[in-house]
Amino acid sequence: MMTVFPDNFLWGAATSSYQIEGAWNEDGKGESIWDRFSHTPGKIVDGSTGDVACDHYHRWQEDLELMQSLGLQAYRFSIAWPRILPQGRGQVNQAGLDFYDRLVDGLLARNITPFVTLYHWDLPQALEDAGGWPDRATAEAFVQYAEVVSARLGDRVKHWITHNEPWVAAFLGYGMGIHAPGARDFQQAAAAAHHLLLSHGWAVPVLRANSPEARVGITLNLTDVVPASPSPQDYHAARELDAFLNRWFLDPLYGRQYPADGMAWFEREHQVQPHFVKAGDLETIATPIDFLGVNFYTRHVARGPAEGNLPPTITTERSEFTEMGWEVAPRSLFRLLNRLHFDYQVPSIYITENGAAFADQLSADGQVHDPRRVAYLRAHLQAAHDAIQCGVPLQGYFVWSLMDNFEWAFGYTKRFGIVYVDFETQQRIVKDSGLWYREVISRNGFDAKG
Ligand code: IFM
User: Fold this and answer.
1) Which of 161, 163, 165 is the pocket-test mutation for ligand 1 (most atoms within 8 Å of CB)?
2) Quick one: fold of 2-447?
3) Least confident interval from 43-47, 51-55, 285-289, 305-309
């Protein structure tokens, strides 16, 4: 039996600028917080940087051919803010804009729809030096950046994503010190989260003005939080974790203000005071958008009492884990999508990232056999399909990632691609999962078994 998707369902793959481009200091690009962070000893597990990464900046034409050979209908990529505005604001670097201009034209020439993310974490270091996302002025600078990029590309780009995973940018970057810029201060992190959302709300009308036919959205990393048991403590822990991971972003974006239980949790656990919220901000953040991007990888099982940064989590004996240590939980994707539909009435959803890291190896036959990734993708696509059948307005799916790349603090030790990258030679080899995905796209579905 075939699992078949709706006729206009969009099949894509995703990447981000710092993770694939390389060319970290070429053609007038300014320094980003990830350049600074990865160049700081001890921050990245394998001591690597994104200086070269997949060398996509030089190999973009080859990569476009690759996308075409896979039959991709859409490609989600991000723009490196410091290529466009090396100091974060002010002087525009035309060479940076030219690069993305060529990329967009190359995609359109191949009938691949560009989905452009403006911010996937590579903040210009100059803005960080002036205070970074905890400072409201960074949100103002983002508006200039959105204006410059959309003025140049808005005639051809019809899908804009303001931010990728503001939870990660704020809390791993400013709260837990795991990501750039490496701060450990939850007051700062909560302010950063607010300014990321505020900048989103300010940028939406700018993007609409420069790109009148475009659809504008934001991408959140969302999860399904379940209590480990029916006990009141576990239920309470799950509610608080859900407030922190999901509702802290969903509620203000959909006009409900920040959740009261999340506020209480922030104050109790991290002494956060919401001084950064100014009159009118919540109305700005709730500016209507056209779609929500959902990045889904795993679920969270919560057990009380909630303490520290993240309440403790447990999993079952039968759980399967990826190389990231993340539980494979496809039914949680089904639950999450239905929740977005019923609780928030989100009118249009794209899965803007979904995928898994496994310890892929090049085989003697020159191929990369990754059956666990095929199984992961199949199970998640089945869950997505089931959600569509329940009325969820899911309009497309982007696998993470098009190719193996720089996995942030894990450097090159985690491979998420459906295309294998030999980082010595920069050779690209389509994995079995890539061949399987090509088949899925061409048939608009897959055999439910096998
Ligand atoms: O690689 C990241 C990506 O940049 C954002 N979402 C999660 C992916 C896997 O960790």
Assistant:
1) 165
2) TIM Barrel (3.20.20)
3) 305-309
